Amino acid sequence: MNKNIVIIGAGPNLSLGVAEKFAENNFSIGLISRNEEKLKAQVADFKAKGINAIYAVADACNTSQLADAVLKLASEMGRVDVLLYNAAAMKFKNITDEKSEDLTEDFRMSVANAFHCVKILHQHLKETRGAVLFTGGGLALHPNVQVGSLSITKAALRNLALQLHEVLQGDHIYVGTLTVNNSIQPESETHSPKILAEKFWEMYLNRAEAEIQY
Fold first, then answer.
1. How far is the C-alpha of 54 from the C-alpha of 82, rounded, in Å?
2. Each residue of 170-205: pLDDT tens digit?
3. Residue ranges for the chain with pLDDT beneath 70
C-alpha cells in the first residue's frame, strides 16, 4: 500500500526535494501553497513521472483556509503518513523595524498554524503510526537581528517540535525537526534540497531524535 505525505509550504526548493525523495519510496504527494499556478505545474510534473500527486490552495497564514486544505487532501488521500511543515514568514527586516502585529502574524504562519495542522491530522497520524517533520533553522540557536522575526519563529518552532516529540510518542507518532544551519542552494555540496531531503528521510526511517542539526 502506498503511503502519503502532505507538504505545507510547497515550492521549488527544499519541499520539492523532499517530495521527490519520498516519491522514490512509493509515497503519494499532497501539496499545499497559495500559488495555484505553480501547484498545478508541480503536480503535472509529478504525474508525468508516474507519481501520484494532488494539491490544495491555501495561504499558510490563514488558519481556516489552511485547515480546509489539509482536510481536503486528507479526505482525497484517505490516509496521511507524514506531514512536512515547511511554511515560514521569510523576510529580511531588522527586529527594531518590526511591528508587534506583524510578529503576531509571522508567529501564526510559522508556529501556531503548524501546531494546528498537527492537531487536525492527529488521528490520521495515530492510525498510520506516522510522522511530523518540521523545517527548522539555525536562527533558532543563533538569532540574527536582520531577520529578527524569522529568528523568533524558528526558535519557537524548535521548542514546539521538542515538546511534540515527547508528547506524541505515546501515540506512536514521530515528531522531528531538521535544524538547517546554512542557506539552502540547489548546487550546494552540503545544503542542497537533495541532501537535506536525505536527512529528512533518515529522520523518518530512524524515528529517534527530536532534532537533527545540520
1. 15
2. 999 999 999 999 999 998 999 999 999 999 999 999
3. 1
* pLDDT computed for residue 2 by the predictor: 86
CA distances from 181 to 22, 59, 195, 202 (A): 23, 26, 13, 17
Residue 77 main-chain phi, psi, to 5 deg: -80, -30
The set of residues, in sequence order, having a beta carbon less than 8 Å from that of 83 and lying 6+ positions away, is 5, 6, 8, 117, 118, 121, 125, 130, 131, 132, 133
- Residue keyed to cell 508541480: 42
Instruction: Label the pairing between strands 82-85 and 211-213.
Output: unpaired
* H helix intervals, 49-185: 63-77, 100-107, 113-128, 148-168
| Prediction pTM value | 0.96
Per-residue pLDDT tens digits for 137-153: 999 999 999 999 999 99
Q: How many domains does the chain have?
A: 1
**CA dist 13 to 3, 123, 187, 191, 194, Å?**
22, 29, 11, 11, 9
Determine the straight-line distance between the first and last CA of the chain, rounded to whole angstroms: 32
Rounded Cα gap, residues 114 and 109, in angstroms: 7
- pLDDT of 99 reads 97
101: domain range?
A: 3-213
At 65, which CATH number?
3.40.50.720
Q: Grid coordinates 543563533 are at which residue? A: 142
